Structures are given as structure tokens and as C-alpha cells.
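Complex record, two chains
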Amino acid sequence: MTGMTTPSENVGFHARRTARWHAGEVVFWIVLIGCGLLFPSRYLIMTEILRIGLFALSLDLILGYAGIVSLGHAAFFGVGAYAAGLLALHGIVGEPVLALLVAGLAAAVLGFATSFLVIRGVDLTRLMVTLGIALLMEALAERFSNITGGTDGLQGIVMQPILGLFEFDLFGKTGFWYSVAVLFVMFLLARRIVHSPFGLSLRAIRNNPLRASAVGIPVNRRLVAVYTLAALYAGIAGGLFAQTTQLASLDVFSFERSADLVLVLVLGGTGYLYGGLIGAVVFKILQEFFSTITPQYWQFWIGLVLVTIVLIGRERLERWVMFVPRRAMRALRRSKAEGGGAT
Amino acid sequence: MTFLTILFDGVAYGMLLFVLACGLAVTLGLMNFVNLAHGAFAMAGGYVCAVLVNKMGWPFFAALPIAFLASALIGAVFERLLYRHLYDRSHLDQVLFSVGLVFMSVAAVDFIMGSSRVFIKLPEALQGQIDLFGVGIGRYRMMIIVICGLLTVALQLTLAKTRFGSRLRAAVDDPRVASGLGINVPQVFALTFAFGCGLAGFGGALSAEILGLDPHFPLKFMIYFLIVVTVGGSSSITGPFLASLLLGIGDVAGKYYLPKLGPFMIYTIMIVILIWRPNGLFGRTATR
């Protein structure tokens, strides 16, 4: 009976094996915390990186895992940002963590409502519908400028201490550690989800929706679920933005934000959770680098990066970048195996 | 402003959108290439025309064909160098590539021409209004309707009646069989792409007066071009034409009657139509 396993046990075994924490992942988080301790003068930019990372993680859930190309993910980011901003401004929910949850839920509600529009139709229609929804939200925010503050944005947001204990300070120290905590919690949740049978079924849908439905996966329901989840993540990223910068203006909905986000994810690689986080670091470094050369025209270089990535090909680029690390890993593994054989 | 004037302005606006977007109707609608950078070619034509008229003193009507040629040339170069490698890539790649091009064009034009809005000096004959049966009609808009109307008829005839038109339809329907019949498919695509870009440039030059011309043109009107194509469907040139007329009239009327709602109406209508008929209002049911 030892060799006989039921399919579900088999799936569970493999899922658990891939879900194990790797040494590299632990190193990643230690490096992240180390950065926070080592560079106290860079809190603001590091907070921004974390925020972009969380936002990109959200897009990765639908693009990398479910294969939905969205050009309007800023809609949810914006809803989250305005929700968090308004809650703090009017003192409805004073406590930031709770307000962040409410912001995420607000975005999730919008995500759930619009998911039915998005799952209908093919790639191009999806692209148009997501783009249209983001533009719609922007137009709405502009229309109700008495609530949103129009192009000037929400002003005079004052944040209360987190959990009643930690005051936001001028240097962004609290904001940074708060963002680290939020990102880590959200990451753990995402990690749990993508390694669950639910996550596996999403990947099946991405690879071939027709076959996925043939093996009994309810394709549309799964897509609705993951779209709503991604909206929740984007809403929390947006809420984090409003809370740490104490700002929310119309540009949270802008097309550039959605487009930049796709670039972030592509820079880091789609379909694995660290892609968004690594992409955020690379993107921010590139942006800083370009804006020191040509402050006004950094977008040109960002565009050039996009075009180059596509022309070279994403797969080929990944092979080049991973060439040295893969070699190193293989050598390490070989030496380990030899060492194990000798004893 | 009477109802008829609004209708007239809307038709002029719609015709203009059609000339701007009909190149995209072929690349996106027929060849299934998501080209978000179409507006950049239109902008190129607009700026070429502006430089010729304002700086070098060319007459407006002489500058229009040059705008067409310049954009067509840029389109041809880009198609041969870049676009043709991406025809069979995924939509995500095409989106990334064309968004990259948009960003580059916006920053480049900003760098060369400055970020403020550019006006093209119009000849005296095109300024002001004429009174036709009690309806105030702008001369410039009148000219747009005439030119764009003629262009549309010419395009429709080219597609339906000429040898090139049938080659294009064959190449789009099934590239493999078409090349098996001896049609040079890449050449047909390249010519079509260049011609579409040329039309966009022509439209860009015409539209400087109505839509405004500044470096953010490709981003601002991207959604409008996409609406024309996706709502119009890709079965013929009539679909996008009717869609652009609807969009033009709807937008002008919306701005006049419900100025507070802004572009809200247009986006809502677009989403509703796409949900109701994912292949467009006038599209065929089968997609490639």
C-alpha cells in the first residue's frame, strides 16, 4: 500500500513541498529588515518601494496567477487611497490599521462588482473594460470634487497613532515599519492562498481555461474570487499610500499608475510572489536614476526600458539575469550532494 | 446653441475621430495587434503640420499632405523595425511595448516642442461661421466633414473594390492561405500599417484646432480610439465609422447638456456595450 496514494493526497504532497519556505525567501525578508535598520535616512523612498511592491503583488495575483491583463488596476488603488484618506480626515475610523482594512474592503466591493464585467469577453475586451473602469472612477472623483477635493486632493489628513501606540513621525520611521508589517502580513496571506488548491486551480485556468473547466474547476467563480482578492490588496496598498503620505489626489486613478504597475511586475517577473517586490525595487532605482539625469523626461527612459524588455523577450531576459544565480545554485547543490555522499 | 448645431459639431467630431482611428481599426480590429501607441502617430502628424505652418509659413492645405506623408513614413519605419516582430506575441507584450512607445513619444515631444498646447494658424477662409438655413455652422468643421466624408468613401471603395483591398482582406482572414496564394502578406501589412499611421497623422493635423494638440495627446485620446475600434467591431469599415459618429455626437451632446457628468457617460456606455456585445456593436460573432 506504500506506493498507492489518492490523487488528492498526491496534490497535497506536491503543494506542500512547493509551499515550503526556502532559504532565499528568509534571506529576502532579513535583507528587507536590515535595510530598514541600516538606512534610517531613506525611510520615505523605502516606504514607497514597499507600497509599490504590495500594489504589484496585487496585480500579480490576477496577471501572474490568473492571466487577466488589467490596465486599470489603479481604480482599486484609488478607491483604497480615498477611503483611507476620507476615514482619517473626517475621523470616522481613527485607528489606522482598522481604517486600512475598511479601505481594502471598499476596494474589494468595487472589485467584486466589476469582476463580472471583466470575466466576460476575451483579452481585448478585458483590457478595455478594466481601463474603462479606472477612467470611470477618475471621472467620478472629478465630478464629486466636493468630497474628493478634485485636483488638489484631500488636504489636512492627520493620522492617529497606530493601534493607539505608535505615532507617525516626520522622518517616516513609523510609516516604514508599519508598511513592512502590512506587507509581510499580506504577503503571508497571498503565499498561503497561491499554494493552496485554490491557487493551483488559478494556474490551471491561466494555462488553459477550457481544460480547467473540463476537469471540473468552476472557472468564472474562481476568477471572480481572485479578482476581488486582488482588488482588496490594491485597496490596502492605496490605503497605505494615503496613510503614509497623508495625501490622496486625482492622480491615484491615473492611467500612468496602472501602466507603471504593469512595468513593475514585468521587471520583477510575473507568476511568483516576489516578482512584484523585486520589480518595485528595480523600478524605483531606475526611476531615481533617470530622474537624476533628466528630471523632466524620465518617462522617456521608462518607455525605452519597456520597449527593450519586450523586444528582447521576457523569457530570454530572465535567462540572462538568472544565469549566474542558477549556476551558483547548481554548483552549491552538487557540492552538497558530494559532501553528503562522502560521509 | 441649437440642437442642429450640436448635431453638426458632433458629426464633425465623429468624422475626425474616424480618420484618426481607422488605421487602428485595421491593426487592432483586423490584425489583432493591441497598439496603444496609435495616438503617437497622430500627434506626429499634428506637430509636423504645426511646424510647417507656424514656423516655415507653409499654407495650411499644403501642410496637410505632408503631415500624412510624415506620419506614414514614421509608421512604415516603425513597422519594419519593431512592430512586425510582435504580431504573434501575447497581448501583454503588445500592451507593454506600445505603452512604452507612448511614454517615449510624450517625453520626446515635450523635450523638442515644449509642453504647452500648440495652435495651428488657419487661413482666413476657414475661420468663422456661415449661416445655413438658420443653423450656425463653423467653416472649419464644415471642411472637416467634407474631407473626412470623401476619405471614408474612398477607403470603403479601396477596401471593397480594388485588388489591394481584396489582398488585405485575404491576408487578414487567413495569413497562411493568403501567402500560399502568392500574396506578400508582410508587405500588405506594412503598407496598411503605414497608410493607417498616415491617416492618423492627417487626422492629428486636422484635429489640432478641435481636440487640442499637446504632448499628452496620445494618452488623452487613447481611450477614444480604442472605443471606436472595440465598439465598432472589426467586420468592416462601416462599424468603426458608425461608432465614431455615435461617440462624437454623444460626447458633444453630453458636454453640452450634462456638463457636470464629464466623460462619465461615454465610459459607462462603452462598458455597457462591451458587456452586451463583446465583439462590438457591428462585429461579427466569430473572433480570431
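Note: Chain B has a mean pLDDT of 85.
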